[in-house]
Design brief:
Elements: H1 3-14, H2 35-38, E1 49-53, E2 67-69, E3 73-78, E4 81-86, E5 99-100, E6 114-119, E7 122-127, E8 134-139, E9 145-151, E10 161-167, E11 170-175, E12 183-188, E13 206-207, E14 222-229, E15 236-242, E16 250-258, E17 263-271, E18 279-289, E19 292-301, E20 308-321, E21 324-326, E22 340-343, E23 349-355, E24 358-363, E25 369-376, E26 382-391, E27 404-405, E28 411-416, E29 419-425
């Protein structure tokens, strides 16, 4: 058995925790005046944010979300390979060889999701080649090498994963077909032994519900988005978008589930700000932190042109955790009304990160220049500043996700097709 596989088996035997995905967790009406929310509101009590690398001059020539390991490196997809970069200068680390993907169907998006696993000083990464029924495993010790590409016993329903994370010796994959069948799948790390196909732990499978959410007698189809787990690993969260505007005025939301049994624990149903039947909502990033849920949504004109209708950050207060419920601020209205709904400065928000009393929201309108919105989510709950990010796309296959904090610093990296962008939150 390879040392890598022995390490995985040892982890299972002694029940060690798994370090992964080092992102630290700790709607508008058609006639809305966006000035009140979208105008920057300088406040000397809040730290400043400095964008040092935009899409025009990226920090690193990578195209996927960065995953950090060790103290000085990160791994990300880059064109048709997976590469390791230095955190000091953003250059490809010369100690590593580019690791070739087994599928290049969608170029840099062939590995949009990478999960890093660290144990006893050894670092490994898992990735999903787009369109291929297998999971890759990489040894991140120099010079780096693809250890295995375990064929899945049951292929994913979708051609790509919305997200993947490692928790408690399990690899969780958000399988997101464009239609019915979104599933959060779980694979034991011990299955990466190169013997036979990789079997899903079906007892842990969480299938997103197909049900009537708006009371019209027709079931809605939920498309899975990003994943998050509670600090203790006992609760999983998965974002979802309602497919095809089948529930007007509902953008989507967040489902809480028991990752050990695959059972739903509760949900947040996030409405669109535009309640008309032409508004289609899309859930981008979300964060569950302490007693709040933060969700970013993009709204678009469903017919006839799919035009942009703005974006929003919705903030909810958690009422109970089991069942998982939020406080609805207006029970007379359909779905869960947020404590705060703040307009973004630009269209198509796709990601969010929290840091201190700030929410950092990425707006990524297709093939236009993006912006980084800095929201005060402390006592004032308002947009504090908006910073230009430059162009974020080249092909449109990879949509920018959540900014990821460099561990132990105030720096953040954002993966885009233009490269890894960098910004820093100043001290108070």
């Amino acid at each position: 058995m390879k040392p890598f596989l022995r390490a995985l088996s040892l982890t299972l035997a002694i029940g060690l925790g798994v370090a992964c995905d080092t992102t630290e967790e700790p709607s508008r009406d058609l006639g809305i005046d966006r000035g009140a929310d979208a105008g920057a509101d300088p406040d000397a009590s809040l730290p400043s944010v400095t964008v040092s690398n935009t899409g025009e001059e990226p920090f690193a020539r990578s195209s996927g979300a960065p995953s950090f390991f060790g103290a000085t490196r990160f791994v990300a997809s880059s064109s048709t390979t997976i590469s390791v970069f230095g955190l000091a200068d953003g250059r490809a680390d010369s100690a590593y060889l580019p690791m070739v993907l087994t599928s290049t169907q969608f170029g840099g998006n062939a590995s949009g999701a990478i999960a890093v696993y660290s144990e006893a000083g050894d670092d490994f990464a898992f990735f999903l080649p787009t369109g291929e029924p297998q999971v890759g495993a990489i040894d991140l010790a120099p010079p780096g090498r693809v250890l295995s590409a375990s064929v899945l016993a049951e292929p994913l329903e979708g051609g790509f994963s919305a997200d993947m994370l490692v928790r408690a010796s399990m690899l969780y994959v958000a399988d997101a077909p464009f239609g019915q069948g979104s599933i959060v799948r779980a694979y034991g790390l011990a299955g990466f032994d190169g013997v036979g196909p990789l079997q899903e732990d079906r007892a842990r499978r969480f299938t997103l519900p197909v049900e009537d959410l708006d009371g019209d007698g027709s079931d809605e189809l939920l498309v899975a988005g990003r994943l998050q787990f509670s600090d203790d690993g006992e609760v999983g969260f998965v974002a979802f978008t309602v497919l095809g505007n089948s529930a007007p005025a509902l953008a989507g939301g967040v489902l809480a589930f028991d990752p050990a049994r695959g059972l739903e624990l509760g949900r947040v149903l996030v409405p669109t700000a535009d309640s008309s039947t032409i508004a289609q909502g899309f859930v981008g990033g979300f964060v569950v932190a302490e007693d709040r849920v933060y969700v970013v949504t993009a709204e678009k004109q469903f017919v006839p042109s799919f035009g942009e209708l703005g974006g929003h950050l919705s903030i909810y207060e958690i009422a109970t955790r089991r069942p998982f419920l939020v406080r609805d601020t207006d029970a007379s209205l359909r779905y869960d009304q947020p404590l705060h709904r703040l307009s973004t400065s630009d269209d198509n928000p796709t990601g969010i990160a929290l840091f201190e009393d700030l929410a950092l929201v990425v707006n990524a309108p297709f093939f236009l220049e993006g912006t980084l919105d800095v929201f005060d989510v402390g006592a004032r709950a308002r947009l504090h500043a908006a910073h230009p990010l430059g162009g974020l796309y080249q092909t449109g296959y990879y949509v920018p996700a959540d900014p990821r904090r460099v561990p132990g610093t105030r720096r953040f990296l954002l993966g885009t097709e233009a490269g890894a962008l960098q910004f820093e939150v100043g001290s108070r």
